[in-house]
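hiii so um. not sure if this is the right channel but i have a protein structure encoded as tokens and i wanna go backwards to a sequence. like what aa goes where. can anyone help
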């Protein structure tokens, strides 16, 4: 297991380098400059001075090497839009917010999706199965920015139970709507994978043997079937967790959550190159770590799996 982990960690280095290189090329290939979208048009001389101040007039290979070397030393550069803060300070302030929101959404997805999929598989072709399928299809067919808008209309404007936006920590009522908006999609995905995987396991010979021995159906499902059915679910859960933590861009923007997803959207629209590159690198690291943890969890979910 240790050798496997070390090998996977070493493989992260070229993966992160490829992600950084592609993002750098795409960002600098975009026409225009970070100051083209200013509230007041800036004179060309001012733009040239700003480009010189931030070394944007240097050759692209030099900009690439300088940023990469600084990033390896923990310096992600200054922000073009928030001149009072560096990119590292912005990420340090906003990433914990997105992490809290993402983990809460994923916990909601696990608590709802896996039991719903299990119930649908056990009650196959019943009204419970059809109802669960309708719920999962609705969750998959609705994008997060549509869900958050509908929840605001229903719970904030309709019945006035919750605020229409803002953020005051994960334990505040303002976190309910974004958590539901982000978590409903992953819950639907987990429910569908749990149902299909469990249905396949419940039709295997060792399950029929357990039933022939007179074991209760609850014990058969929980102790024998679920461990075998969780392997594909764990794979989807790992990918979904990384997407939930790093992909809540529009939910944070619409609901006014000061997370890293909102900063990502602002960095794209404002051509804030250092902030955009820094956030992409952080996202790539998070996704790589989550994928590694997912692979490690296979060995605990199924004792037959060993890494050599």
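sure thing!! here u go:
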């Amino acid at each position: 297991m240790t050798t496997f982990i070390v090998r996977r960690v070493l493989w992260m280095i070229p993966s992160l380098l490829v992600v950084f290189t592609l993002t750098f090329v795409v960002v600098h290939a975009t026409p225009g400059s970070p100051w083209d979208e200013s509230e007041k048009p800036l004179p060309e001389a001012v733009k040239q001075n700003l480009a010189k101040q931030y070394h944007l007039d240097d050759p692209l290979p030099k900009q690439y090497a300088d940023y990469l070397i600084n990033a390896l030393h923990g310096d992600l550069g200054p922000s073009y839009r928030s001149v009072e803060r560096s990119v590292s300070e912005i990420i340090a302030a906003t990433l914990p917010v997105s992490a809290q929101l993402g983990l809460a959404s994923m916990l909601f997805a696990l608590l709802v999706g896996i039991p719903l999929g299990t119930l649908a598989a056990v009650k196959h072709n019943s009204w419970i199965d059809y109802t669960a399928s309708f719920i999962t299809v609705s969750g998959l067919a609705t994008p997060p920015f549509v869900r958050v808008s509908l929840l605001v209309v229903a719970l904030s404007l309709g019945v006035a139970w919750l605020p229409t936006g803002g953020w005051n920590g994960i334990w505040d009522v303002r976190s309910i709507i974004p958590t539901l908006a982000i978590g409903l999609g992953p819950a639907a995905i987990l429910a569908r994978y749990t149902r299909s995987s469990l249905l396949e396991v419940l039709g295997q010979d060792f399950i029929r043997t357990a039933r022939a021995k007179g074991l209760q159906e609850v014990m058969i499902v929980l102790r024998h079937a679920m461990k075998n059915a969780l392997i594909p679910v764990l794979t989807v859960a790992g990918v979904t967790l990384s997407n939930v933590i790093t992909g809540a861009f529009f939910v944070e923007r619409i609901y006014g959550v000061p997370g890293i997803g909102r900063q990502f959207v602002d960095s794209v629209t404002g051509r804030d190159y250092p902030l955009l590159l820094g956030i992409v690198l952080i996202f790539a690291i998070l996704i790589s770590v989550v994928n590694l943890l997912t692979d490690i969890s296979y060995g605990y979910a199924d004792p037959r799996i060993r890494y050599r």
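oh and The chain has a mean pLDDT of 78.
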